[in-house]
Design brief:
InterPro entries: DUF6702. It holds the Pfam family DUF6702. The N terminus is likely disordered. It is built from three helices and ten strands, in the order αββααββββββββ.
Amino acid sequence: MTALLGKPLLYCYILLGSFWAEKPAPAKFHPLHVSTSDISYNAKDGQMEVILTIFTDDFESALTKQFNTKTDLSKAEMHTAMDELVKKYTAGHLQVRAGGAALPLTYLGFEINKEAVNVYLESAKIAVPKKIDANVSLLQNLYEDQLNIVHMTVAGVRKSAKLDSPARKVSQQF
């Protein structure tokens, strides 16, 4: 007899529980807000080469916020328009100095690499730098907990720094 009474109570509990149960918050795609900036001197070409790696969804959000326009870095038909936004964004959020002089960087393009975007930049020919300074503020206008990791390489020597927002500046001697 108790087995028969228990089942309707169980069904009521399940039914009512679904109305009163607290819904879980939607999971974030990734809980870490990080980018990497790889700044390397290519001795063969005499140029500084830069590769920025940024999570695609975060980068699209930053572009949308800054330029107040629809963004989609993966759509081929939007690539030309996105190229212009990426070029403007990186110019405003990454500055490099070599030997104390500002180093103009030429935007080469971007590509999607799984969940991330790689942005490619290079300088004109320069002498082997003894000191590199970088001002990196990627995604800091979007996330308070943004972490930007900066790698600098000259003559096979790699030095790295971690910039927790709001920190933006890093200098390395070679």
